[in-house]
């Protein structure tokens, strides 16, 4: 089965906009009307062997990641997280001390983002550890930023360095909640997504949703120290890691080209390319040549091409 | 590890009432304030081998059950379900046709309860099928009914027959959303919980949260046909099944004794006992004798005492 095909099928069926559904499941989070209020709503899961390795990850990090992935999705809408509920599916022989450490990791992260965990379900089962989190967010006066708002001529930017998150950042990243609010308030973003699948894949999503193409400048891509370290080990280049690795949870966004200077001065992000008419993405190499940039990357844990 | 002890620990840490949290995770759902609106919020999971058996359950039933358990929790607060998000964790070799059937089962149930599925996350993994659902509900002018509102002198009642749900009802039950609203509007319920763990266990929860005891009359307990069928097979009595089996998802509630006649005339429920001062539950046998009713039951699928 193709995950992508099933997700596309789901999306074709659910969450059609209209009525009380303002933004559907194709974006980082849904936006719905409850009474007079706009509410952002998102769920996500982490599973042992897919999103972390329980043999090596600290339990606090697992709890952090389970919640932080949802926080990052709310950030990608420029929303404010508010309330979370957590469903833990735990192996039958898990010790209570271990589960408490997971929970405390989640709790600490919740607190630092002023989010209250208001409900928890818990089931022991014969399988591996899995945690699903659902998060409610608010917009507090800012219009949600969608994946679909990129316009030709926009600058493309990211909030931080990319690549090599498998070396540790994927368990410890800080969701860019505050940064997203500040950027949107100061600059008025056109579109946004968080980098969970990798720069090339997520820029592909953004372009597809917006019906545009993009050019990314090699020399502008912020390559992380981890991407360089990983490249020394595995023979791929640091650039490949910055383009292809997932789970950096930096924000990838577009803004009016005229605001690029303001962005750079703010210290909150860095321009890496531009939105163009048409479809497809290209990489402009340092020597000025251009090549196709396929929306592909590598998955974590297993490190399979994805 | 004891599930109960971990849940108690979680509850001691999360969701303290106060501020924007009106009702915490110790009830069927949390109630929080978003802007000026009261929102009910709940998550729950179903796991292959624990809550259903993928070898025998129809995929549509699995989808139904995943959502309907959450719907039942919102019903138990007399709330109105509105929006759901769904996280599916599926075995790597699942066929897309199979997953679509699960999804369609969920969708059909959502539609019949005017609930919109607005977001879906999907991850394939090496383990078994698990589905987490999170549900947002509204109160639409009715005060949420808590587990903690039972008062000495209240009548104890249920919405329908109990026991033997393992023979099929646990996959096909109808959450009592409409019934709960109507009951609360007509009668003004004092407390409510849905029967997921079994009558004795869930009445125990309700008594504990309310700081009261209860007497249940054997001759009033609505024993289901399934409980009788199961009893013929396994040598337990139909009454044991009605008291101990879980997953009927009927509502168990208390009301002012003076409204018991109105309840019976409404056809929406049946009085089975009364709330008393003090602690502990007793069963009044048909011969008038009374015996202790321990808050215990039997778990499904595995049929282990739980």
Notes on the protein architecture:
Two copies of one chain form a homodimer. Residues 299-306 of chain A have low confidence and may be disordered. The first copy, chain A, has two domains: 3-138, 60s Ribosomal Protein L30, Chain: A (2-Layer Sandwich); 147-292, PurM-like C-terminal domain (Phosphoribosyl-aminoimidazole Synthetase, Chain A, domain 2), CATH 3.90.650.10. In chain A, α2 packs parallel to α3 (96-112), α2 (59-75) packs parallel to α5 and α7 crosses α8. Chain A has a seven-stranded mixed sheet with strand order 8-10-7-11-9-12-13, with helices on both faces. Chain A has a six-stranded mixed sheet with strand order 1-2-3-6-4-5, with helices on one face. Chain A contains nine helices and 13 strands. The first copy, chain A, is an alpha+beta fold and 306 residues long. The relative contact order of chain A is 0.15. Chain A has helices spanning 3-13, 59-75, 96-112, 169-172, 177-187, 199-210, 225-234, 238-244, 260-266; strands spanning 21-23, 30-34, 37-47, 80-91, 116-125, 130-138, 155-158, 191-194, 213-217, 251-255, 270-276, 281-284, 290-292. The radius of gyration of chain A is 19 Å and the shape is globular.
